[in-house]
Prior knowledge:
Blueprint: H1 2-25, H2 28-33, H3 42-49, E1 71-77, E2 80-91, H4 95-108, E3 112-113, H5 115-123, E4 129-134, E5 137-146, H6 149-154, E6 167-176
Antiparallel strand pairs: 1-2, 2-6, 3-4, 4-5, 5-6
Amino acid sequence: xxxxxxxxxxxxxxxxxxxxxxxxxxxxxxxxxxxxxxxxxxxxxxxxxxxxxxxxxxxxxxxxxxxxxxxxxxxxxxxxxxxxxxxxxxxxxxxxxxxxxxxxxxxxxxxxxxxxxxxxxxxxxxxxxxxxxxxxxxxxxxxxxxxxxxxxxxxxxxxxxxxxxxxxxxxxxxxxxxxxxxxxxx
Length: 186
């Protein structure tokens, strides 16, 4: 029995070394095998698009020009694939109304406010919101955040006149493509 355990440890060490070596030298086959891609994620993206919270919005909210459609898909970055579905809105009222609206809407749909968001809200009642599903779906998050000039510039987004009538914000449901656990960042 002892040699068999050693062989298992050696095999584990060898496979780990091969994956690390492949990633460090730029050899892709093993690295690609170990990372998620966007291939075959269409049905999961459709699941994200179906969350009602994406279409929920406080009365008076405007859907700005250039943002009429639900944006959804998959993107790969640094060997990781990320699924998303999001909507962009402009609200002419108080940011607190947006925060209150989405806290209630998310709770009705079974989302749970993350610990890091609860802590952030104690310091700043207008902090971005992040929720998780928990339970059997620990790969999906819901983010509600206010758009800044820096965010829009980084996206190379042209804003229409609606943005002058209020502030922009985004509601985004995201998930890891491979279904691995995901949480709200601190």
